[in-house]
Every structure is written in structure tokens, then in C-alpha cells.
């Protein structure tokens, strides 16, 4: 482990901590802010849905399985276009595409048996776990995509 | 308010803990980087290359950082061919020559990725995910014309899932190719909850079995081959048993019993089931996929839940029984019947199996990442298997989380009776030897 790397890491981590603390402070001043509480509730509701339906392939830490099941971490498929992401849950996904430069062979099955609310919570959980940070997906958004598919 | 204060107070502690973790992760990362530079690394500097072996055996890394090293063949001259499913410098086949302590990459060729490699009667046979090729060898078993292989088989199905085409040859001029099923359990919609199994599974017409072709006939298609065995979901480890003059294969059993049928299977049952089965194959055999699976705890063939099963109802009445059965999802990628004389007598004519390691045991701990020995007596599996070479993962924790450093894949026997194991995660070749 060379020194530059270590230094960089310490700096990065310092910043990260500072940001977190800043966020906490910020939250203090807006303690009754509704969206934050809603986001938290949706993330919490998403975890058991993730455990029941996704963990076997994508793993509990979202890292996936090399060559077979893609990671859910910092990929545009998770963090990008919400409609595309919702469609992956509703329709499944079996396109031969590269995800962050890697190909994955297993079929992702349709999970359209989940309710709109379950899909919203699940995706909000995934978009805010494993180091991801992105806006929530709402039940209304899932409903709209399902109706238009 | 109190809670939030607590979180604030915890933050620096969490940050320090996280930093320590990160630093450790980085440390092991940098060790990995060094392994290419012929200096110290955990793998090469620790005894037996970090492996845990049966007593009397030792292991050494003879080559590393070779890319996605899948199956391996060792020539009578003690040199090595290995097939890559990830290119090294744009090539998919490597030829390594050996001296006493290491193997040196001498030649690379073949502009296709794949899994299968086999040396037989003056030819090197290799496979991509759609085709099988062969290369004429000279009297030292060196490839004469690496840029002009003969195409033996072409147009095999490859639809992402179970795409690897494992190959082996018998002594009568026949080539055997695995064509894996592009499906988990032949559901109408693959891996979808509540989607039923297809009646008269159409996948079996062109996949989910072993096909036999002529080893010396060019450009063979499905119609030129024979569906030698069916009802095999996916096979990577296969070998011709010289004692029985018979094909043996290792099947990768189905995934996701709990995901798809939580009413019948706990996560623990889903991690252990179904068995990873060894089959002794006769022409025309049916191993039963997708209509049944084998339960190694009940010692029974069980009706597949997509076809009305519940984990208890028996099924597969016309399917053959396994020759041996192992716990679920360990992913047998290499099978080798040992015919050498270097190892103790009990190993002769028994089977080594390289278990690539699981992914479908989550949320239970992952397992595998080892080479197993299954004793044989009079051509039949006899007695319990032993874990012959363990800790390819690097530690128990790395195995449990599935973050294995090395994943055993291909097996081969050298002319002196040494056992070779490839790792397709980091492109390592291990050589395991025995001294009295």
C-alpha cells in the first residue's frame, strides 16, 4: 500500500465524514421535513422485498456475481432513467448488454407480481444502498410505467 | 432528538472503523497487483500456495495472471494447453512449457473465447461457445498451424445462460460436447415466480444434454451428431473413464428453490438442494432435468416444483440415478479420473472434482472453492468423498461471502501423475504433487 493511496483514502474519508456530519446537522434544522422521513420509510420497507426476491442473484451487498448476475452498485441501470429501471422489474431483462464493461449471462425474470408500492420501495432501497444515493421511486411512477407498458 | 445526537456521536467511530476496513481492503488489493511481478504474494509465498491439502501432498503456483483459464490439458511432454473465456492479449488459447518449478507462456493463439480443451491422438481440440475446432500437432505435441484450425462442429446453441461447451473424447474417434440448457428449470418464463414448467420441455431438442460427434469430420451440425444423453441441465466437468470405457459427467443442479417456492423450501434447504450429481452415462440415458431433481439428503429423485412437486413428491421414474451426489450449488467445473501412479494407491481410478464455488446459496453462506476426491472401487463410486484441496478462496470468510480469491475450474493429469488445477478468477495454474 503506497503512501499516496493511503493519503488519498484518508482525505476521501475525512471529507465523507464531514459531509455526513454536515448532513446530520442539516437534518437537525429540518427535522420535520416530510420527504426525508418518507424516503427512510420506503428504504426500510424495501429491504425485506430485496431479501426475498433479489439476494439470491445480486447478493446481500449488491455486488452480484461475476459473468452471471450484474452488480447493483453505481450502474446507470440503477441510478439512471427511472422508467427503464422500473421496466426491468416489470418485464425482466435478458438483453445482451455490457454493464460497466462486463457481460452477464443469467436471465433476470419479470417481477410483475410485486405491487406498485413494493416495486417503489424495493427500487428506492436499491437506489439508496450499497453506496448508491439517488432519489426515491414512487408508487405513482411505477403505476404509470405499468399502465403504459 | 436523543437518537440523532447518538448518531452524530457515532459518526467518527463509524468513520474510523470504515477507514480501517478500507485500508485492509486496499492492502489485499495491492498484494493482488504484485502477483504479476514475480515478487512476493500471498499465493506464491505461503506454503502450498495457500491451499490446504491432504497430508503428503504439496502445491505450487506454476503460472498466474493468465486471464480466464478454464479447462486444461497436459501433453506427454509435460507442456500445457489452457483455454480462456477471457482473452489474454487478444488470444483465447495458451501454450505453456514447463521446467522444474514453473510454466512459461510460450505461445498464444485462437481468436475466440471458450472453455473446452483436449489433447488426443495427434490433435488439440478446443471449443468456443458455439463451435469445436481441432489443430494438428507435431510429434512433440506442438500446434503446427495455430491460425488454421479445422472446424469440427459448428452452429451450437449459445444463449447466454450455460453457454460453455465442455468437451471430451473417447478411444473410438468420438467427440462429446455438452450443450447446456439456456434455462433454470424450463419454465415458460425463465426464473419467474409462478411461471409453470413447459410440458415436453422444447429446450431438450437442441440443448440440456451431451451430443456425440465424429472427432475427425469437418463442419458437423446438430443433424450430424447424436443426442447421446439428455435431461442434463448443464455440464462443465466431464471425463472419459478409461477403466469403464464410459462417459462420466458432473451436472450443475437448478437454482432458486426458495426464491421461486418459499412455501416448500427454506433458505437453508434451498442452499443445500438440489444435489450436484455425478452421472455415469450410457448412450440414450436421460438424467431427468427439468422434471425432477436429486435430493442428496433424502436420497431420492424428487418431482420438480415447476411440474407439481413440493419437495417431497417423488419423480423422474425413467431418469437414471446419480453415480454420486454432492451438496447444492457448489458448481462442479472439472472432472478427472486419476490414472497416474504418483499419488497413493487409493486415488487410482477415483475421481477428482473441481468445485468452482457457489453463488446461489445466498442469503446462507456460500461454499465450494475446493477440489474434492471421490473414491471409486471396481468402476463405481465407493465411500465418502474427501475435500482434497481447500482454501482456493483465501479464507473461510472469503468463501462464505463468495468473494473468493481463486476459483478452481479445470483439472488435468501430467505424465508424471501430478494434478493440475486452473483458477479462472485470476488465471492461476496450480500443480499438486505427492512425495512418499
Automatic annotation (TrEMBL), chain A:
What are the UniProt keywords, alphabetically? Heme, Iron, Metal-binding, Signal
What's the superkingdom here? Bacteria
Q: Which Gene3D superfamilies match?
A: Cytochrome c-like domain
Q: Which SUPFAM superfamilies match?
A: Cytochrome c (SSF46626)
| Cytochrome c domain segment(s) | 41-130
Q: Which residues form the signal peptide?
A: 1-22
Quote the PANTHER family the UniProt record gives. Answer: ALCOHOL DEHYDROGENASE CYTOCHROME C SUBUNIT, BLL4482 PROTEIN-RELATED
Q: Which named protein is this? A: Cytochrome c domain-containing protein
UniProtKB/TrEMBL annotation, chain B:
Q: Which residues form a coiled coil?
A: none
| Annotated signal sequence range | 1-17
Q: What keywords does the record list, in alphabetical order?
A: Signal
| Listed Pfam families | TrAA12
Q: Where is the Pyrroloquinoline quinone-dependent pyranose dehydrogenase beta-propeller domain?
A: 52-434
Q: What is this protein called?
A: Sorbosone dehydrogenase family protein
What is the source species? Mucilaginibacter dorajii
Q: What is the lineage of its organism?
A: Bacteria, Pseudomonadati, Bacteroidota, Sphingobacteriia, Sphingobacteriales
